[in-house]
User: Fold this.
Amino acid sequence: MKNRLMMTSAAALLGLGLGAASAETLRYGTAADIYGFDPHSVTDSFTNIFMHHIYEPLVRYNAELDIEPALATHWELIEPTRIRYFLRDGVTFHGGETLDASDVAMSLMRAVHPNSPLRGNLPGLVDVEIVDDLTVDLIMGGPSPLLNNFLTNIFIMDSGWLEANNSVAPIDANQGEEGFTTSNANGTGPFIVESRRPDAQTVLVANPDWWDEPQHNLTRIVHTPITSAATRVSALLSGEIDLIEPAPLQDAARIESAPGVRMLENPGLRSIMMGFNLTDTLNDGNVDGNPLADVRVRRAIEHAIDMDLIRDRIMRGKSRNTGALVAPEVPGFTEELNERLPFDPDRSRELLAEAGFPDGFTFNLNCPNDRYVNDEGICQAMAAMLARVGMEPRLVTEPRQIHFERAQAGQTDMFMLGWATLPMLDGFSVLSAMLHSPDGSMGTWNPGGYSNPRVDELTRAIEIELDPEVRMAMMVEAFAIAKEDVAWLPVHQQPLSWAARDEVELTQSADDLVRLWYARINR
Amino acid sequence: MLGFLIRRIIQSVIVMLAVALIAFMMFRFMGDPVNSMVPEHATEQERAEVRERLGLDQPLFVQYGRFIARAATGDFGLSWRNARPVSTLLAERFPATAELVLVAAVLSLVVGIPLGIYTALRPHSFNAQTLQFLSLVGISLPTFVTGILLILVFSVWLGWLPSFGRGEVIDIGWWSTGFLTASGLKALILPSIMLCLFQLTLLMRLVRAEMMEVLRTDYIKFAKARGLSDRAINFRHALRNTLIPVITIFGLQLGGLIAFAIITETVFQWPGMGALFIQAVNFGDVPVMAAYLVLVSFIFVVINTSVDLLYASIDPRLRVDDAGPAGGGH
Assistant:
């Protein structure tokens, strides 16, 4: 009954406010819903960016992906393992509480709690010491050059609110109780939660007391998850939704030709690449040993693939071909690394013959069919191109859950993987996960077993090097070695694919995260 | 009667146990749910810890046993996707699915049966022929295609009806209903048409075939010879006998409506149990999938039992317990 009253009064308010207020309501449709409001219990990137509207980190990325102060105004290195953050004065939570050092200490420790799936997103944090009301020291296990990058993703909650609601520890999915923080939120961010019906609708309203000067002109955000891509596009075309993300690539032409709506398609951070089985035997081979372990064969594969054709025919000309394992926005990228071996089927056949496989060989080629933009189409094209130089790839395309499990278990000979380096936005992400020899902590995504002692050595040094220039030089060196070895075959950076009504003005950041605090509606 | 019910209850428990077991065996082929729960750069150790906390490192039968033991106390655990109790999630979604299925079922009855009667009574008229042809389309077109077509015509081109969601809903206790608001009713139209279309055409064709069959029988001829009015013959005698098999089929199809609702709910972003299930499948959310499958199998058993009871009360020949003189002599 109470809810019913609330609904009616909300409807009445809406009726009164129509006109001025509705002009700045942004109706926003995405493929998935957020998992919940607890910012330390979920690693899903969409949930995470949505949380950025409600909660805020100490430092944040702006639209150009530069780090700028948020709840912390500045910071300084006291010792290599002690970094001092000075908090912004006079910031209040949506519930009225004032931000202070104890909030920061409790939130950071909550994020690295053993129950928190996010704790890998703030590696090395040992303790947080409160210096005074607005100053904290972060104590790290070792020098942490990427600390600020990691902190952009760790949200600050109010300590009193957490204590009052028995939520100091993050939610443990294996306990049978529902956490208060899953359905309730109390942040400092530009928007306040008004209501939520899971998988149906989440409504945010602008925070009038936000500490920052708003660049947006929104009063409300109405978010609706719309799983079916066709329905999502229809809702945009019929005017029920102002912004959709992602917009399916096959509908891009239809959206562009429709009046009043447009596509937003820029190359993103996510680099697509192919991994190789580098062990002694193929999983699905017809020859002794493993031809893929021979670098000449891997070069032959690179020469055999016509990326321009894939870009123009499969990606509608919107992807960016790459020779590097990271996008241009990511530290570690250089123009030299970005050069691909030219498309040259004759050279490819020569290399195969040199390696002792003039008649080719069979191997399996595994791809997801629901993870990356046109992933299945890219792999079909690649399989055909490899067949043309005499190889016999056996193409397997599967849903993402199965594909990644299989790939990570090393059951594939050549497999597709995309890597955006998020949340750290640094080449170290690729080096540590995909190029370092698998040793339990690093090389998690190196199932093929690529191993080069120099790369390992550089990766370990980069992890703790605080001088940005030295660090950059080491990353470039490591990437150059991996490139020479064709440890991975870079494919392209896939395009971001959003669509919006013409009156919605929006910046599209390369990390594919929708930052509505930069959105404006101009009617 | 009581014995029949007890037998059915025991059977239903066995069915649910079996469904849960099959479900658990299938989950193994769905990929590793841990991948959706850790950051992509998580270390092997972090993955192993998550796996251990969720009990995924245990053998299949241990996982199954734990699920059954907890389910027996009414505890279906927490969803791995959004950390809320599975029972709460299902209870939240149930009204949306129930209202959609109810409207679709009523539509298929209210439209399907009269159309069936009409086409049976006037089999050679132009209208009946057209309806017969259209019903073929309805029965053979995949429902998601119909759904997308409906959206294209009524939302995108005409702009009359919403393409997604339930509109505004009102909470009555734990039940959220879309029946009481204009936008809620509008939102029901397209999804319920999509959902009922198959059922509607099936009923229409079934009623037509049964009715034509009955109209050829001797007692209808006798009734005609006695000079009864057409109306009395068609509706008092023919229709009644037609409806007996129709009820069985309708009952069985009601379960089908709940199952088909998965597709409808996905196309129209209808926040019901089917949509919840699809999201759980995409994520690898084992607790939600297991509970949903058990719940749906339970609903199937309840519907089938009710149909059997109803059937027996409509058709006296089928009462097993008091077989009566008809069965004598053996």
